[in-house]
Design brief:
single chain; 553 residues; alpha/beta; seven-stranded mixed beta sheet; 20 helices; 15 strands
């Protein structure tokens, strides 16, 4: 046996398996999420607890129904920026008294809960999700207002936060504010514009300007309690609808408010085993379902470290959708299995809820795939069925043969259908998400109701090596057109720098920090998270469209 063959075998043996590589990425994900959970750090958290106060996730745990899950959104917001990971606010969806609600909780351990530019963007995204899915909003308030050094990035766009609250009220999507501490300056308008406001006695302080500002502006001497204390607002100004004895009492009152909203209780517990229809005193029918035919644990073995290596999307689907049952029949009814084979389409159920699936794990999309997807999206709209996009794509195929075959118009047809589809869309980026493939497979720009990424995901206009290579070709052509000699050796350093930059900016933590997704998730949690999302979207009627733009023949 030659030394070359021996060395190759040794390298292959030393290379991590798909599972080992994914577990390493998941460990890195947990480390980054831990930074958000840590808030302002040990000293700040200890100081907060010493005052008898709870942290945001502790408040949320008491607010939601016992034994139910909390789907945290955008936990890595601000990753890679100058601000702490998590953007000093926790947002997510939970079940309170059987009602699905959007929860927003300031983290006072991070600069007193002050809002930075990423806080504002994260709250905007939460408000968008609440609006699209008809959710009531519960704000757990303790904020020092805007981060003053970055006020230029907060002040003008930040007004949308208060506009969203009042518009939610007008849509009959109730808003509830539980005020645990300072709620000053712009932060005062959250309780001021909410439908229901609860303030904690001797803790909540709500005013547009604190005593120092009032002294500077008017010369008036005042103290926190007379200016904006909870008791004053409950007895004098009338801003507080309820006066709570302590934080737990405020949460108890908040739960009773939600219970009296006369909202339909969906009977879901978001449990890990089976949905509970007997948890609440109002009858509800939870859909019956069978567990997946394949173990979700196996998802760790499927995704290659090299995203150029294809994998069978049916193996992913088998671990995400409901298994075979008398009600469900086969787990996955594949549509057009022999045509456009690099895109898998078909019908399934997840936690008993129907869904149409478009799954690509083979890389390139050709004209056949685009036409197949267009028809499938139309069928989903005809039957009012939500769509799930599972994707790993390098984009639409390029080259003379494919351009002459109509790849542009066929890709445009697919994007047309997805753009004008009115059934809810859910997206999970499993691997590559490059170029127009990101658009065709319902990336962030196409407003999916929810979008999550796996730790293996990458997204950019094209792969780093391809992008750097294109720049080199353009630079060479530019030099030749000027009659100059192209310095290939000198450009090598630029090429390497560009490739490294694109690689970094295409990674999931970077994209999640920019709020281009709703969270990076462990692949094994995909089914549970999609089950929650499918339940949430049913708070509003699902109505497909028969109106699309012009399909170019």
């Amino acid at each position: 046996m030659s030394d070359t063959v021996t060395e190759a075998a040794a390298e292959e043996a030393a290379a991590p398996t798909h599972r080992e590589a994914m577990l390493e990425k998941i460990a890195a994900l947990h480390a980054e999420q831990a930074k958000a959970i840590a808030g302002g750090g040990e000293k700040s958290v200890a100081r907060h607890h010493a005052r008898g106060k709870l942290l945001p996730r502790e408040r949320i745990e008491l607010l939601i129904d016992e034994g139910t899950a909390f789907l945290e959104l955008s936990p890595l917001a601000a990753w890679g920026s100058d601000f702490p990971v998590g953007a000093s606010v926790v947002t997510g969806i939970g079940v309170v008294e059987g009602v699905e609600v959007m929860i927003s909780a300031n983290d006072p351990s991070v600069k007193g809960g002050a809002s930075n530019p990423w806080t504002v963007k994260k709250i905007f995204r939460a408000a968008q999700i609440a609006q699209e899915n008809g959710l009531p909003t519960v704000s757990l308030v303790e904020s020092g207002g805007a981060d003053l050094p970055t006020q230029k990035e907060i002040f003008i766009p930040g007004g949308k936060l208060f506009r969203d609250l009042t518009r939610a009220s007008a849509r009959k999507e109730p808003t509830v504010a539980l005020v645990f501490g300072n709620s000053t300056a712009g932060g005062a308008y959250v309780p001021g514009m909410s439908d229901y406001t609860v303030m904690v006695k001797e803790q909540a302080k709500v005013f547009l300007g604190g005593p120092p500002l009032v002294k500077m502006a008017t010369g008036e001497e005042s103290d926190d309690e007379s200016l904006g204390g909870a008791e004053m607002h409950a007895r004098v100004s009338g801003l507080a609808d309820y006066l709570a004895e302590d934080e737990r009492d405020a949460i108890r009152i908040g739960r009773r408010i939600i219970a009296r909203l006369n909202r339909e209780r969906r009977g879901t517990s978001y449990g890990q085993d089976v949905p509970s229809s007997a948890t609440y005193d109002v009858p509800a029918v939870a859909p019956a379902y069978a567990e997946p035919d394949a173990d979700p644990e196996g998802l760790l073995d499927l995704i290659p470290s090299d995203l150029k290596e294809p994998f069978d999307p049916r193996e992913v689907i088998a671990r995400v959708v409901d298994g075979v049952s008398p009600r469900n029949g086969v787990a996955f009814d594949e549509f057009k299995p022999l045509y456009g084979t690099s895109l898998v389409t078909g019908w399934a159920r997840i936690h008993g809820q129907p869904v149409g699936i478009l799954a690509n794990a083979q890389g390139v999309l050709f004209s056949e795939e685009a036409q197949k997807a267009t028809q499938f999206v139309q069928l989903a709209n005809q039957s009012d069925t939500p769509l799930l996009f599972l994707h790993n794509t390098t984009g639409y195929m390029v080259g003379k043969e494919y351009e002459q075959g109509g790849i542009i118009k066929h890709g445009a047809m697919m994007i047309n259908a997805i753009s004008n589809s009115t059934v809810p869309h859910l997206t999970v980026i499993m691997g590559a998400s490059y170029g127009a493939g990101n658009y065709g497979m319902n990336g962030r720009a196409y407003d999916p109701r929810f979008l999550f990424t796996w730790p293996s995901a990458k997204s950019a206009v094209m792969g780093p090596a391809q992008l750097a290579g294109v720049l080199e070709i353009v630079a060479k052509q530019s030099a030749e057109s000027k009659g100059e000699v192209f310095d290939a050796e000198g450009f090598a350093g630029i090429k390497q720098m560009v490739e490294a930059q694109v690689e970094e900016q295409s990674l999931p933590f970077f994209l999640s920090g920019m709020l281009y997704d709703d969270g990076v998730i462990d692949p094994r949690d995909t089914r549970s998270i999609l089950g929650i999302c499918l339940s949430v979207i049913r708070n509003k009627p699902i109505v497909g469209t028969d109106r699309f733009g012009v399909f170019r023949p």
